[in-house]
Design brief:
mainly beta, 3 helices, hydrolase
Length: 426
């Protein structure tokens, strides 16, 4: 008997499927090897080859040891039922040398999933466990702790369309949790991310990053991490985030963007509603590179063009914000990036955005820290119905501005600091 064999059975499924038709589906139940001595990735791959088009792939309530990369990008009209845990190996050198290209910022990933009409359901128990404690300890000892080459994202949804990902948990992701690229019309429902290290904490553990994607919806998205709760990067359009909860990270990020010299990129039509923040640095912040190119991605760059516009962030409830509630830095500098640059020369424009009904508590006196470009000033920026207080009830009342034209709903109270930043403020 071969433990890596995929047992395929025909299951007569009654009723109407998510695609709206009655059908019999081929079902592949993925066997688990039972220990980390057996790499379950080949069995997983074969299951998707057999049942990834018009079928169903089932992960049983057990642990699957994933010791090698997986590129599963041809899916079509498939149900993926995850009842157990996919646990990635701790062979750091293997992943550094073999992780797969994401297609953006020279980033890489351990798993690629893509296709059309894909329905992934973890039923609240299905888990992707990146074994990140080993990564978090290892990266602290490296000279480059930001974007170390080959450090993989947990999963990249590449070319995923007309699909649903629901009820899935991500624990201790190796780096970013989900990079979502070239994907359109996808719902992420009731997804839980906890990248809190058991022994040490780590940066660059984003909850999700959208890239060159549109019509992406996040609902009931919960993130515990040490970096961006969620980030909208280059050519992210028509993104919705609702009824979500963000803990301990940096908050909602737009960017970084403008990293590729001469490339025109946009972030447009972002709608965020009913978000709870607990101990995050910001509620919302923007980060763009300067007009000067210093090095190359992932830890260098600059000189990009474009704009971010048509964004509404409303009904934001905060508890113990650690920095300015709303921040803009157009002088992004990651750790290890050369040079300080000119913090007011970015050609990337930020315009037409509103933050409305932002309430709660903060430890910072700065409601806003808006360091915009002198070349392309921020325009039509609104902060409306803001009520942020310290725990003693005193109101936070600083609105620091640089190159902000005709603000709506607030008056600038002083100048903003100018300096390199990857997290929204000097």
């Amino acid at each position: 008997m071969y433990l890596t064999r995929v047992f395929c059975v025909l299951a007569a499924l009654t009723g109407v499927s998510s695609a709206g038709h009655t059908a019999s589906k081929k079902t592949c139940i993925v066997p688990a090897g039972g220990s980390n001595a057996t790499d379950d990735a080949p069995a997983i791959y074969r299951a998707f080859r057999k049942c990834g088009r018009g079928g169903k792939v089932v992960f049983e309530p057990t642990t699957y040891h994933v010791n090698s990369v997986l590129n599963i990008s041809w899916l079509q009209d498939v149900d993926i039922d995850i009842g157990g845990t996919l646990l990635w190996s701790t062979d750091i050198q293997y992943w550094l040398n073999n992780s797969l290209d994401v297609g953006y910022q020279n980033q890489s990933t351990a798993l690629i999933l893509g296709g059309n009409n894909v329905r992934i359901d973890g039923h609240g128990v299905g888990t992707f466990d990146g074994n990140g404690d080993y990564w978090y300890e290892w990266i602290r000892e490296q000279p480059n702790t930001s974007n170390y080459p080959g450090r993989p994202h947990a999963v990249t949804f590449n070319g995923l369309t007309n699909s649903v990902v629901q009820g899935v948990n991500f624990l201790r992701s190796q780096m970013w949790t989900m990079s979502i690229i070239y994907s359109h019309h996808v719902l992420f429902e009731s997804v839980f991310v906890n990248n809190t290290g058991n022994r040490v904490s780590s940066s660059n553990t984003d909850g999700a990053d959208t890239i060159r994607s549109s019509h992406i919806k996040f609902n009931n998205f919960t993130v515990y991490n040490g970096d961006d709760s969620i980030s909208f990067k280059a050519n992210s359009t028509d993104i919705t985030v609702t009824n979500s909860h963000f803990h301990n990270g940096l908050g909602i990020a737009v960017g970084s963007i403008g990293q590729y010299k001469g490339q025109f990129e946009t972030v447009e039509r972002i709608h965020v509603d009913n978000i709870e923040y607990d101990n995050t640095l910001h509620s919302v912040y923007f980060k763009t590179w300067t007009a000067d190119q210093n090095g190359y991605p992932p830890n260098g760059g600059g000189g990009g063009l474009g704009f971010a516009s048509d964004m509404v962030f409303r009904n934001l409830q905060a508890r113990n914000l650690r920095g300015s509630a709303f921040a803009i830095s157009q002088c992004t500098r990651f750790s290890g990036a050369p040079g300080d640059g000119n913090c007011t020369n970015s050609k990337f424009e930020i315009r037409d955005l509103t933050v409305k009904n932002l309430t709660g508590t903060t430890t910072s006196s700065r409601v806003a820290s808006l360091q915009c470009s002198a070349v392309a000033p921020c325009t039509n920026i609104g902060l409306l119905d803001v009520d942020l207080t310290f725990t003693n009830g005193t109101a936070a009342d600083e609105y620091l501005c640089g190159n902000v034209k005709d603000p709506r709903g607030f008056e600038c109270t002083g100048p903003v600091c100018e300096g390199g930043s990857a997290t929204g403020e000097c």
